[in-house]
UniProtKB/TrEMBL annotation:
<dbReference type="InterPro" id="IPR009057">
    <property type="entry name" value="Homeodomain-like_sf"/>
</dbReference>
<dbReference type="InterPro" id="IPR011075">
    <property type="entry name" value="TetR_C"/>
</dbReference>
<dbReference type="GO" id="GO:0003677">
    <property type="term" value="F:DNA binding"/>
</dbReference>
<dbReference type="Pfam" id="PF16925">
    <property type="entry name" value="TetR_C_13"/>
</dbReference>
<protein>
    <submittedName>
        <fullName>TetR/AcrR family transcriptional regulator</fullName>
    </submittedName>
</protein>
<feature type="DNA-binding region" description="H-T-H motif">
    <location>
        <begin position="29"/>
        <end position="48"/>
    </location>
</feature>
<keyword id="KW-0805">Transcription regulation</keyword>
<dbReference type="InterPro" id="IPR001647">
    <property type="entry name" value="HTH_TetR"/>
</dbReference>
<keyword id="KW-0804">Transcription</keyword>
<keyword id="KW-0238">DNA-binding</keyword>
<dbReference type="InterPro" id="IPR036271">
    <property type="entry name" value="Tet_transcr_reg_TetR-rel_C_sf"/>
</dbReference>
<dbReference type="Pfam" id="PF00440">
    <property type="entry name" value="TetR_N"/>
</dbReference>
<feature type="domain" description="HTH tetR-type">
    <location>
        <begin position="6"/>
        <end position="66"/>
    </location>
</feature>
């Protein structure tokens, strides 16, 4: 059971996450968070040392939440193919992502590249772990004879994630989800071409 202070901090993180995801670390400010939470500066600073601390904790919250949602989605699949398709379908509507503003991993990765080395390293770890999980699912699919050993798990996993993440940005920029549907269909067909 969370204490009142822990619930307040959780509320601040949940409320600040879409602000930071949409405006970025540099673009979001304390006043945005105060307006959205309707809390006082004193209350906010009782939980966070300042904007930098808030930003770091919001990024951690977004990465943790995204990871939990992704693992829950993939975990529903009973086969390697079902798990991969669940991952791909997680991105089927790039205009209405679960966290307003697009994929938090990609958004934070782009902004942190040259400006926030500590956050960049967190993102790199998340991407590496995600790739390891994806590759592991595909290797299990080969082991279980769902896929032929012609499938290169590392190449497909990297290609699928890079394509989908790039497509989220492109679709959001063009304000259309239609290209994503075609991409997902193509990635699924490619994986199915390795079916035994």
């Amino acid at each position: 059971m969370l204490t009142k202070a822990e619930r307040t901090k959780q509320f601040i993180l949940e409320t600040a996450a879409p602000i930071f995801n949409q405006k970025g670390i540099s673009g979001a400010n304390i006043d945005d968070v105060l307006a959205a939470t309707k809390l006082t500066k004193g209350c906010l600073y009782g939980h966070f040392e300042g904007k930098e601390d808030l930003a770091l904790q919001v990024v951690d919250f977004m990465l943790k939440t995204n990871g939990e949602k992704m693992l829950s989605t993939i975990g529903k699949g009973k086969t390697a193919k079902a798990k991969v398709f669940a991952f791909l379908d997680f991105y089927k509507d790039p205009l209405n992502t679960y966290l307003k503003g697009g994929c938090p991993i990609f958004n934070v990765a782009v902004e942190s590249d040259d400006h926030f080395p500590a956050i960049k390293e967190k993102i790199a770890d998340v991407i590496r772990r995600g790739q390891e999980i994806f590759i592991g699912v595909l290797k299990q699919g080969i082991k279980d004879r769902e896929f032929s050993n012609e499938l290169d798990p590392a190449v497909y996993a990297f290609k699928a994630v890079a394509a989908v993440e790039g497509a989220v940005i492109m679709c959001r920029s063009m304000n259309t989800a239609k290209p994503m549907a075609g991409l997902l269909k193509n990635l699924k067909a490619e994986l199915e071409s390795y079916a035994i």
